[in-house]
Amino acid sequence: MNFLEERIVKDGVVKEGNVLKVDSFLNHQMDIKLFDQMGEAFKEKFREKNINKILTIEASGIGIACIVAKHFDVPVVFAKKAKSINLDGEMYTAEVESFTHKTKNQIIVAKKFLTAEDRILIIDDFLANGCALQGLIQLVQAAGAEVCGIGIAIEKGFQPGGQIIRNLGYQLESLAIVESMNGETGEIVFRSQE
Ligand code: 5GP
Fold first, then answer.
1. Does the C-beta of 128 come closer than 6 Å to ligand 1?
2. Whole-number Å distance between alpha carbons of 119 and 107
3. In sequence order, what are the residues at sequence separation of 6 or more whose Cβ sits closer than 8 angstroms to the Cβ of residue 131?
4. Which residues are annotated as a binding site for xanthine?
5. Best residue for ligand 1 mutational test, from 13, 58, 99 (most atoms within 8 Å of Cβ)
6. Which position among 44, 79, 98, 140 has the lowest Cβ density within 10 Å, counted as fewest Cβ atoms?
7. How far is CA 8 from each of CA 47, 55, 94, 139, 178, rounded to the nearest angstrom?
8. Is the CB of residue 80 less than 8 Å from the CB of residue 94?
9. pTM of the predicted structure, to 2 decimals
10. What is the pLDDT of residues 68-103, one digit of tens each?
11. Where does the Phosphoribosyltransferase domain lie (predicted)?
12. In the CATH hierarchy, which fold is given to the domain comprising 3-184?
């Protein structure tokens, strides 16, 4: 097991509805040393990609993205979730359905922060059905920029997002892929990756 898988086994809690709770170290209280290890791991995987910007989505992607960005020495842009569709023309927008809240949100990024020259690394905490990622990819495409890689902390491999995104041809790297998890015993099985 790698460092993140070990931490998930130690402190993750399997909840009903295929939800893995990792709020003691990842998306409520945040373990910055762990984030730093994740940054190092992503830098290793995307070293050759000439990344010049990191894109994530509020809220829980932001903390990880900021620490990852230190390893690439690039800025972070986060897509905002907007309730209103009354948005001016200075924004790129996409629609995203939230896995955890079952609601639909517009996500937006100001046009001035995504340009056709950008080589983007997308970072997020979880990958489940892939809706968040598809929304982020749409924003990058609308700007004429390039998605050069996608880094995810925890992918739930039993949900379809990973396969959908890989089939689109993107280099998607997840530091931990949960193959299965049992809500009664709490057992978590990871996909082996080399
Ligand atoms: P997707 O759009 O891929 O279905 O879901 C991705 C988003 O849903 C992530 O940004 C994350 O915030 C949230 N999410 C999905 N599954 C889980 C989960 O099992 N646990 C937690 N804590 N968040 C999740």
1. yes
2. 20
3. 96, 97, 98, 99, 161
4. 20, 27, 156
5. 99
6. 44
7. 26, 24, 31, 31, 10
8. no
9. 0.96
10. 999 999 999 999 998 665 666 799 999 998 877 778
11. 35-156
12. Rossmann fold (3.40.50)
